[in-house]
Amino acid sequence: MLTMDMIQDARRVLDGVARLTPLYQAPAIGENIYIKAENLQMTGAFKLRGAYYKVSSLTEEEKARGVIACSAGNHAQGIAYSAAHNGARSIICMPAGAPLSKIEATKKYGAEVVLVDGVYDDAYKKAVELTNEHGYTFAHPFDDEKVIAGQGTIALEILDQLPDVEQIIVPIGGGGLISGIAYAVKHIKPECRVIGVQAAGAPSMYKSIQQNKIIELPSVSTIADGIAVKKPGELTFQLCSKYVDEIVTVSEDEIASAILTLMETQKTVAEGAGATSVAAAMFDKVDAGSKKTVCLVSGGNIDVSILSRVITRGLTKTGRITEFATKVTDKPGQLNALLQQVAQTGANIISIDHNREAQKSEINSCVVSMVLETRNTEHVESIRETLKKAGYPILND
């Protein structure tokens, strides 16, 4: 069973292995918001803590058999790193759709990577199959006391760094991270609230707590690949039921906006899962106005190709990029007149499409689609009203 002695022992074992990650105030996000930057952890995510403590606790015989794990990427890197530093072979089952950066990083730490079609849960089934076939030692990414204890060391650091913390927001996938944090917090400072956040496209723990039983989702879909888990663990469900105060969800656009905000205001890169805590605070899913609130940014391992798309999505959500479609009469000077109206609003045109054959246009009209660089949502609304008053219908309202 999980105990405070186990979490304290994990802290001792991790001394000199895991970084003491910074905790700092982020007034640009909120007056009472603090960031715990586990995206700056070794291997780029908090997962190293639980993975290393688990591997270090294995017997020499268990290490000799080889350590196997399943992961969307961060636990994979944690186990691969930990196995290499403890003289053990590692085999990692990963979803074939995991970010390429996570797959390659796992290989560089010395692991044998087995790619599995599907999501995390499919990788889990393959890892169990290989364990039974070859006798490997299985290191579960979240439903394991040692792994949970390792993650719980983050709570000890937060309470040391910000003793008067009143609320901690923690991302949830399978629940290992929040289980360790909530257990430690409630044993040391029970009045401190612990709030979990899941992607709306993968709300397995959220629904399980709501229905008071473990729910397995038929599918999950989210840019937060690190928390795209169909079914929470047995142990983590019990711990969350007992120690977590509340669980909320955030949308894909909200996650993208949080990633963008962290880049612009904090000069730090977070992956989708890591940014969910900030998204919950930014979009008022959690009351952070009156409480000293720590947002745990759990990881920063985001693929560069995904990052560019996320930035575009975040810019759109916050009104920094917008698209308008309207109609103009098909005769000389009409397009120029439209562009002059747009120029007067202070918007910058990124791209424009002038289409005579569009289905929405009459025979003597053209549809003009524009992608604009704008200041904020109020600016977007101002442009919309300006065009309408000038007689240009907005086709994509």
According to CATH, what is the topology of the largest domain? Rossmann fold
Strand order of the largest sheet: 1-2-10-7-8-9
Q: Main β-sheet: number of strands, strand sense, barrel status?
A: 6 strands, mixed
Mean pLDDT: 94
Span between N and C termini? 56 Å
Broad shape: elongated
The CATH first-level class of the largest domain comes to Alpha Beta
Number of strands: 13
**Helical percent range?**
40-55%
Q: Count of DSSP helices? A: 15
Would you write up a description of this structure?
By secondary structure, the chain is an alpha/beta fold. The protein has three domains: 4-45 and 144-316, Rossmann fold (3-Layer(aba) Sandwich); 48-138, Rossmann fold (3-Layer(aba) Sandwich); 319-389, 2-Layer Sandwich (Alpha-Beta Plaits). 44% of the residues lie in helices and 18% in strands. It contains 15 helices and 13 strands. The N and C termini lie far apart (56 Å). The mean pLDDT is 94.
Question: What is shown here, in short?
Answer:
By secondary structure, the chain is an alpha/beta fold. Helix content is 44%, strand content 18%.
SSE blueprint:
Blueprint: H1 4-14, E1 23-25, E2 33-37, H2 47-56, H3 60-65, E3 67-70, H4 74-85, E4 90-95, H5 100-108, E5 112-116, H6 120-134, E6 137-138, H7 145-161, E7 167-171, H8 176-188, E8 193-199, H9 204-211, H10 234-243, E9 246-250, H11 252-266, H12 272-282, E10 293-297, H13 304-317, E11 321-329, H14 334-344, E12 348-355, E13 365-373, H15 377-389
Parallel strand pairs: 2-10, 3-4, 3-6, 4-5, 7-8, 7-10, 8-9
Antiparallel strand pairs: 1-2, 11-13, 12-13
